[in-house]
Design brief:
The longest helix is centred in the middle third of the chain and has 39 residues. Helices cover 80% and strands 0% of the residues. Helix 19 packs antiparallel against helix 20.
């Protein structure tokens, strides 16, 4: 394989570009596979790791652990970003993948509450915190890695293909969970079957390590090393600049819809359909699978569209559409019909694709190569922690407290409105080179 030094910074052969895109996807896949499986198995995890006396309290504790892990993501993002901006994207992403994978596998090996009491949820929390720390460095690094290889005019398309990894992993998690639940039944799933989805991270880690370890550093980062030294303290440099502080603020506000869409529309959806709307576990998972298939099909079109008409138009169109149609789609979910629920979920997935398929390239293009990993990770992870990770807990609590099953709809409409307004503040970057400094 030709190296980037031989090819130069503007010429990357198609084979290398394919491998880079796969390498970007594989870590994102492993990261979100765990989040998806945890969300899909939330009811089972609540039974396995907490006392059984109060089902709602156990579910709230399960989602509180889910949410708490997001608050270490900004820390992980800054630490991994520092490494990525100092020693390079490729080596950092290999380390991040190993930490994510190891934590996921370890969860599958944990003893239960029945076996060791309160130590079980404590160990679960520790491992989830490790996952949150490592996940803080994954998306920003992976998307920057792909974008810094991508040729002009194709950055949106190629980063959207990497984003597919997150939804493909959710789809796999939903399919695995559905098949196991149908095959083993509730009792066997609670007894031991819940471990299988987590242990599947072993082969994923092996494949991901092999792919990422075989790639060169990005052309943009190599050029930075050649032209000038990498940033000595990328976080300090980011916060010292008014321009970069503004960009970090935009990196917090623009992805607000992404956290809501991903963690409410997909990860929380099976629990919402089962516990709140009283669909069966399998029906809830099947509805979720349909929405995932829809968004996986739509994301590449969103990425390609953003390369043609621009990032702002694509994201703003997605956000404004969800402001208008978010509540009617959730209303379809509440009608008790699997078919109507599928229609509502699929419509929201197709509309949301215009945001989630484009958001990461928008964030990449906000920052220069010198600070990109750190600044991107800082803003994106603060946004995800505040508006994504806490969403399942918040929705469960608000529905329990108010009895209003439309809470997820209100939340989606609100966050879509914030994103729609925030994206108006950025310049169009689809047809401009990546910032170098």
């Amino acid at each position: 394989m030709a190296t980037t030094q031989e090819l130069g910074t503007s010429e990357v052969d198609k084979k290398t570009l394919r491998r880079v895109t796969v390498a970007g996807s594989v870590g994102v896949f492993v990261e979100f596979y765990d989040y998806g499986v945890y969300g899909f198995l939330a009811s089972t995890i609540a039974t396995v790791f907490f006392p059984k006396q109060d089902g709602t309290a156990a579910l709230l504790l399960t989602f509180s652990i889910f949410g708490l892990t997001f608050f270490v993501r900004p820390v992980g993002g800054v630490v991994c970003g520092y490494l990525g901006d100092r020693i390079g994207r490729q080596r950092t992403l290999v380390l991040v993948l190993m930490l994510i994978s190891g934590s996921t596998v370890a969860i599958g090996l944990l003893p239960t509450y029945a076996a060791i009491g309160v130590a079980a949820p404590i160990l679960l929390l520790v491992l989830r915190l490790a996952q949150g720390f490592s996940a803080g460095g994954e998306s920003a690094g992976a998307m920057s890695f792909v974008a810094e290889y991508a040729p002009e005019g194709r950055r949106g398309m190629l980063t959207s293909l990497s984003q597919l990894g997150s939804y493909a992993s959710l789809l796999l998690g939903a399919v695995v969970t559905t098949v196991l639940t149908e095959t083993l039944g509730t009792d066997e799933m609670t007894e031991w079957g819940w471990r299988i989805p987590f242990l599947l991270a072993v082969p994923m880690a092996v494949i991901g390590f092999y792919i990422r370890s075989k790639l060169d550093e990005t052309p943009k980062f190599q050029q930075l090393r050649k032209d000038s030294a990498p940033a000595r303290n990328p976080l300090k440099e980011t916060l010292a600049s008014a321009e970069h502080r503004k960009a970090v603020l935009l990196a917090i506000t623009i992805p607000i819809l992404n956290g809501t869409g991903y963690y409410v529309l997909f990860s929380y959806m099976p629990t919402y359909l089962n516990k709140t709307l009283h669909f069966s576990v399998v029906q809830g998972l099947l509805i979720t699978v349909c929405t995932l298939i829809a968004i996986i099909a739509a994301i590449p079109f969103a990425g390609r569209l953003s390369d043609r008409i621009g990032r702002k138009r694509t994201i703003a169109g997605s956000a404004f559409s969800l402001v208008v149609l978010g509540y009617p789609c959730y209303w379809l979910l509440t009608q008790g019909s699997v078919a109507l629920a599928m229609i509502g979920g699929v419509i929201m997935a197709l509309l949301f694709a215009g945001h989630t398929g484009v958001i990461h390239i928008v964030l990449v293009e906000l920052f220069p190569t010198r600070l990109r990993y750190t600044a991107y990770a800082l803003g994106y992870n603060i946004s995800t922690a505040a508006f994504g990770g806490s969403a399942p807990f918040l929705m469960t609590y608000l529905i329990s407290a108010t009895g209003d099953s439309a809470m997820p709809a209100y939340y989606m409409v609100l966050t879509a409105a914030v994103t729609a307004l925030a994206v108006l503040a950025i310049p169009e970057t689809a047809h401009s080179p990546l910032k170098e400094s």
